[in-house]
Amino acid sequence: MDSLNSLIDGFGTALTPINLMWAVIGVLLGTAIGVLPGIGPAMAVALLLPVTYGLEPTGAFIMFAGIYYGAMFGGSTTSILLNTPGESAAVVAAIEGNPMAKSGRGSQALAAAAVGHFAGGLIGTILLVALAPTIAELAVDIGAPDYFAIMVLAFIAVTSVLGSSRIRGLASLLIGLTIGLVGLDTMTGQQRLTFGSLQLSDGIDVVIVAVGLFAIGEALWVAAHLRRNAAAPIPVGRPWLDKSDLKRTWKPWLRGPFIGFPFGAIPAGGAEIPTFLSYVTEKRLSKNKNEFGKGAIEGVAGPESAASASAAGTLVSMLTLGLPTTAVAAVMLAAFQQYGIQPGPLLFEREPDLVWGLIASLFVGMVLLLALNLPLAPVWAKLLQIPRPYLYAGILFFAGVGAYAVGGEALDLVILLIIGLIGLGMRRYGLPVLPAVIGVILGPAAEQQLRRALQMSDGSVSGLVNTPFSVTIYLIIAVLLAWPLLRKKFQSRRNVSA
C-alpha cells in the first residue's frame, strides 16, 4: 500500500506541465534516435548529459527514461520495414517483421510492435513497483555459473529453432562467436584477431555487426537478384490489426513481460536474451509454426513486449542496488552521480520525489509512445513503396552513417562492408543471421563468466554446476537437445501402433 501511495504522489510530480514537456521531448527524441541505426539510446543519453546540467534532476531523468523507451520503440520500425535494426534489442523483430512487411503487412507488424511495447512497458513498470526489492535480492544471489548456464541455454536454443538445420544454426553461431573474440582479452590483455590494428583492440561493436549482417547483407542479396527478378512495389496493406491478428497476438503480448522483466534486472545481456527467448517460446507454442520465418505476427508481438519489459527490469537493479545492467543504465548511473545522488537501497527514502516521479513518468511515456506510434504505422509502412534501387541505396547510406557514428573511425566502414559480405554469403548458403548476432553479443560475456566460474572452483568443471539454478538450466538444455530424438521415437511408435 505504501508503494501505491508513493506512486500516486509520483504521478503528481510526473504530470506537472514542465515534467510532462520533458517526457514528450524524451519520447520524440528516443523514437527518432531508435530509427537511425548505430546511434542507440545509450549514445543519445550520453550526448544529452552535458545539456541537462542546468535542469532539475527529476525533469532530466524523466527525459532520459523517455529516450530509453522511445528508442526501443523506434528501433523496431526500421528493423521491421527495412531489415535494419536501429539497436540491438530490435534484432529479433526483423526475423518475422520484415517478411510481414514484404508481403504487404508492414502496418500490422508495426502495430503489433507498438502495442507489444505498450503492454510490456506497462506490465514491466507495474512489476517494477511491486517486485523491485525481491528482484534485486535474486539478482545479487546469481553467480558466474548461473550466468554462464543462461548463456549456454541461449546458444543451444538459437541453433535448434532457427534455420533449415541445426548444423547451419551452429555454423552461424560459430561465425558470431569468432567475431566476438576480436579485441583484447579482458582478463589477460592479450590481443586476439586484431591483426595488429589498435582500432580493433576494443572489439567490433554489435551494432556494426547487426547492421552489416542484416542491412548490408540484405541490400547486396537484393542487388544480386534485382535484375533477374523485377520487383513489384510492395503494398502497404490495411492499417490496423483485425480480429484474427488480435487473437494471435494478445497472449504473446502478455507472456513477453514475464520473460523480459527478470532478465532486465540481471546483467546477462540486456534485452537481447529475453527477446530471443520470447521468440523461441512463441514459436514453440504457436499453432501456426509453418508461418515462422515467413512472417508470423507472434514473432513480432512477443519479443517486442519482452524488450520493453526488460527496460523496466533494468531500472530495478540500478535504482535499488546502483548496479547498471545495460549501457543505458550505466549512463543514467553517471547522470545520478553528476547530480550528487547515489542509487542504492536508501535512494527510495532519500529521494522519494525523484524515484517515484521517474517511475510514474514511465506510465506516462508508454501512453505517449502508443499515441505517437500507432497512428504512424501506415505512414511508416509507405516507405516500402519507394522503388527498390532507391530504397536499398538509402539503406546503405544510413547503415554507413550509423556504423561511422558508433566509433567515428573509417575502419568501421571497412568492417561493415566485410561483415555485409559475410551476411551475403550466409544468405547464399542458407545460414540464419540471428545466431551470429547472438554469438557476438553473448560470446564475450559467456567466456568471461566461464573463466570466473572455473577460477572460483580452481579449474574444476564441477564449478559450473554447483548451484541449483545452473543445474536446472542444464536440465532444460538437455531436454532441448533430446526433444527432437524423443519426438521422432514417439511418432514412429504411433505409426507402428496405427
TrEMBL record:
Transmembrane annotation, as ranges: 20-49, 61-82, 109-132, 144-161, 167-184, 204-224, 311-333, 354-377, 389-422, 429-446, 466-486
Protein keywords: Membrane, Transmembrane, Transmembrane helix
Keyword Transmembrane helix: yes
InterPro entries registered for this protein in UniProt: DUF112_TM
Pfam families documented for this protein: TctA
Residue ranges of coiled coil: none
Domain DUF112: 20-437
Protein name: Tripartite tricarboxylate transporter permease
Species annotation: Streptomyces albipurpureus
